[in-house]
Amino acid sequence: MVELIEAIVKPIVDYPEEVSVTETEENHRILLTLSVHKDDMGKVIGKQGRIAKAIRTVVYAAAGSQQQKKTVLEIVD
């Protein structure tokens, strides 16, 4: 899942070397935290959150077929 998120996000940002994704497994969910450079935050979120929503949709679709735990994607700077 980490590689999928990186493959989606790195081409759209100005600082791809600062893109990092961490995966934390909790009781009933898997938390994926996407960290980007503060100047790239707008590019990752997009107008009215459309790009962030699209990224989440792809990640949730890929995770839904593989795992039984709920997957959550959090975007931070």
Automatic annotation (TrEMBL):
Pfam families: KH_KhpA-B
CDD domains in the record: KH-II_YlqC-like
Domain of life, source organism: Bacteria
Subcellular localization, as worded in the UniProt entry: Cytoplasm
Coiled-coil regions listed: none
InterPro entries: KH_dom-like_a/b (IPR015946), KH_sf_prok-type (IPR009019), KhpA (IPR020627)
Keyword RNA-binding: yes
Keyword annotations of the record: Cell shape, Cell wall biogenesis/degradation, Chaperone, Cytoplasm, RNA-binding
Predominant place of localization: cytoplasm
Function: A probable RNA chaperone. Forms a complex with KhpB which binds to cellular RNA and controls its expression. Plays a role in peptidoglycan (PG) homeostasis and cell length regulation.
Family label: Belongs to the KhpA RNA-binding protein family.
Quaternary structure annotation from Swiss-Prot or TrEMBL: Forms a complex with KhpB.
Protein name, entry field: RNA-binding protein KhpA
Organism per entry: Bacillus spongiae
